[in-house]
Specification:
This protein is mainly alpha-helical. Helices cover 32% and strands 8% of the residues. The strands form 3 sheets. A 3-stranded antiparallel sheet has the order 5-6-7, with no helix packed on it. Strands 1-2 form a two-stranded antiparallel sheet. A two-stranded antiparallel sheet has the order 3-4. Strand 3 and strand 4 form a beta hairpin. The radius of gyration is 16 Å and the shape is globular.
Length: 200
């Protein structure tokens, strides 16, 4: 998302999600849902087991959109949901015109010089499951994480915007967020400055 903003394919993290995902246009609070809410897990979308059933096991992930509803105003409550990441994937694909897998390969995987072939799980329609399931070696994951230790730099090249890396690792408790989670990163103890991407 940060790279797409840098390349002016997305205006900013304050863009409304409905600009890119029209399928949720008519839902209550959809007109207030920003990309930043998805990044901080403060979308206000109501947890629903049917979401994960369709996202993980269904033949077509998009069917999960039929069951999206809000339980709170965006920016008031933090709740980790795979649906948030799924919607971010839809935003990214709409903005770039590429699948999330192709955009990752183009903007990070190849520039990082990762030689291993990764596999990203898909549904039966061939759409990647953006919320999970990139299968790669430990060494490749190590390479993938290196720019985040160097403010987005790799071998003298700015792969991820420095401002995005810094913003991602900020500790803030605005708009329903928390000091321990920001822009999809789990933030550790402040005195150590550690952070991690932890999921399934």
């Amino acid at each position: 998302i940060g790279i797409a903003i840098e390349k002016q394919l997305i205006d900013s993290a304050e863009d409304l999600v409905t600009k890119y995902v029209v399928e949720i246009d008519d839902l209550q609070y959809a007109s207030e849902l920003k990309i930043s809410h998805l990044l901080n897990m403060t979308s206000g979308i109501k947890p629903n087991r049917k979401h994960d059933a369709f996202l993980y096991y269904g033949k077509d992930q998009s069917r999960a959109l039929k069951y999206v509803e809000f339980e709170a105003r965006p920016g008031t409550k933090q709740s980790y949901l795979n649906m948030n990441i799924y919607l971010l994937g839809k935003v990214l694909e709409s903005a770039t015109g590429l699948s999330a897998a192709k955009y990752l390969e183009q903007e990070l995987w190849q520039p990082l010089g990762i030689v291993g072939n990764a596999k990203w799980s898909t549904d039966k329609k061939g759409k990647v499951k953006t919320f999970c399931c990139i299968n790669a070696s430990s060494r490749d994951y190590l390479q993938f994480g290196r720019p985040w230790l160097n403010e987005g730099m790799h071998n003298g090249e700015q792969l991820v915007p420095e401002s995005w890396v810094r913003k991602s690792l900020e500790r803030k408790a605005e708009e329903g967020s928390s000091h321990a989670y920001n822009y999809l990163w789990h933030l550790g103890l402040e005195q150590y400055g550690d952070f991690m991407a932890a999921g399934l």
